[in-house]
Amino acid sequence: MSLIKFNNWAAGEGANPLVPHTAELIVGFIAFSLLFLVLRSKVVPMFEKAFAARTEAIQGGMEKAERAQLEAERALTQYTTQLNEARGEAQKIREDARAQGAAIIEDLRAKAAEEAARITAAATAAIEAERQQAVTALRNEVGALATELAGKIVGEALDDQVRQSRIVDRFIADLEKSK
Amino acid sequence: MGVYLASEDGFKPPSTADFNLPPVFGDNPFTTKPVFLAFFSVILISVFFILSARKAAIVPSKFQFAGESIYSFVRNDLARDVIGHEFMRFVPYLFTLFTFILTNNLFGIIPFLQFPTMSRVSFPYVLALFTFVIFHYVAIKHKGLIAYLKEIMFMPGVPKPVYILLTPIEIATYFLVRPLTLSLRLFANMFAGHLLLLVFILGGEHLLQGVIGLKLVSPFAFAFGIALTFFEFMVQCLQAYIFTLLTALYIAGALADEH
Known about the structure:
Structural class of chain B: mainly alpha
Distance between the termini of chain A: 177 Å
Order of helices and strands of chain B: HHHHHHHH
Number of domains of chain B: 1
Number of helices of chain A: 2
Distance between the termini of chain B: 57 Å
Oligomer: heterodimer
């Protein structure tokens, strides 16, 4: 018994709907195979291409963003380092200036003190010299005056130069002692 | 029944004979409506998807997005999620299967076409045969013929006496039940759905020709026919999905190393 009937529409109402039709089997096979070949060669690769391109575009964008972020971070680090360096340098310069200022002041002070000392010393020396001069002058004058006076008083001339000067010296020493 | 007697020649309810459409040209069996519809679907699907995929743009147009949505549904939700990392090899087949079945099912409710190609059992048979050959071929290639047959006949981890029962069941499952249920599920759903629509539409038409009382009832028949059309739309989409999903599951089983 042949299950596959060619003209089973002719059989009308009695036709078993579960019995396949040879022509339709062939058509189904051809139509489906044809569609398969078309979709496989023309449609699937194109959609896959679009999907791949899309994935790549998204991934590329993400990579680009990541790169930009890294770059930004690097720049930030660089700037921070530079800023810190500059700050340190400024600090150093300030300290140097302060130290230099202090040194200058110290130097000037020392110079002034030295000058003052020098002036004082010169003045002291001058005073001493003048005093010495005055003392010498005074001694001579006082001696002469005193001798003259004494001579006048004693009435006898003390010509002896040696004696005269000895007396004067003693007199002055007494004078200084009593002072 | 008296209702039918109201009409002149009586109501002849739609039957399986309504699916045996005669050839358009003479006696040539390649010129029936289902044959034309099958080829028409091939042209329709090809043109739609070729135009949709032609540009393959990163930012898709609405048209490309429409085609892409269907493609990525089959690719991601059916192939990838079910089969796993080797899914790409089977995407073209599953995609063809889904679009072919869906389009031919939808022909059942598209005005003027109004015939689901899959209600002709030959087409589901062919599709089930493809799936049958593919999943067995994949399994034999992946596991080797002997190991595959052994796995079917002697499922591991089962007590030996159970094989008396299990082995015939497993053999029947793999070589008979799977292809038969696959094809008959699709066929029967389309067949029954079309028959149901015929009953309500032709019935409504017939009532319209009856006496005034029957004329008043006929809009309800038509309304129900329209409601059923929406229901049919759901069934048609669902059946295309189920056929493709089961095919993907069988392929996944063929690639799985252990039961």
